[in-house]
Amino acid sequence: MVVRRRTRTRGKGRSAVHEKPLTNSVHVVQGERVHMPVDVRAATGITAQFLVPAGPARDTLAAAGLEPVTPIPGRVPATLGFIHYLDCDLGEYHEFLVALMCRQPGVRGSTGVFIHWLPVDQTFTCEAGQNIWGFPKEISTIDVSTRGKRTRCEVRLENRPVVALEFGRGVPAPSAMGAMTLDAYTHRDGVLRRTPWTMRAGGTRMRPAGARVELGDHPISDDLRRLGFPRKSLFTNHIGELTMRFADATTISSRS
């Protein structure tokens, strides 16, 4: 059995988000031992923030036992984006993200993000994400290209276009805010889980709007339309230096 090792650099260069591990559990994925927490020592990403109608989001979240957060009446913050994991305990891979802001009904301080869809392009991280945290990962084709000041990410499943997201570059923005931790909620096989997700961003660029969404003819494309995409983004965020840490998931509820 192979142990998937992690190398942390101190001082100059890359560094982990925390010095001390959050847990010491071990999971076995494809014959390899994955020690918790899982570290992402280097990644880049681009995200676009939206406000989508509360009704469809409420239906999606209710199926998982959650409710939407509506900072503006009738609107729920949502995120589309992609991440290129360069140095990670789960290997190098691309990932696309669809997330909705949510909370547990009646639970103070439970605000987080519901990970609605999370396609990836490598099998190891797909299996690890599904089995360790309940992430809705599935194998897809993810193509990323940059021309001038615009970057485009295209996701395909079963050789059918699902979604394309094109971003404008933006201008440099302050990013020395330290580490930020939020709760990532997942719902898989009737089990609602909460995962502490810590990240630190640097080398950021932001701009108002700046993203264009194109949906294909796949059933997941129809689901994104139902949620209210495409819709003009509020702003986009390019992250040139991203580190993250994922702790073990906690089971919130289980429905047989």
Automatic annotation (TrEMBL):
Q: Where is the composition biased (Basic residues)?
A: 1-15
At the top level of its lineage, which domain of life is listed? Answer: Bacteria
SUPFAM superfamilies associated with the record: Acetoacetate decarboxylase-like
InterPro entries (alphabetical): Acetoacetate_decarboxylase, ADC_dom_sf
In this chain, the stretch annotated as Disordered covers: 1-20
Fetch the Pfam families from UniProt: ADC
Protein name, per record: Acetoacetate decarboxylase family protein
What organism is the protein native to?
Saccharopolyspora endophytica
The organism's taxonomy opens as: Bacteria, Bacillati, Actinomycetota, Actinomycetes, Pseudonocardiales
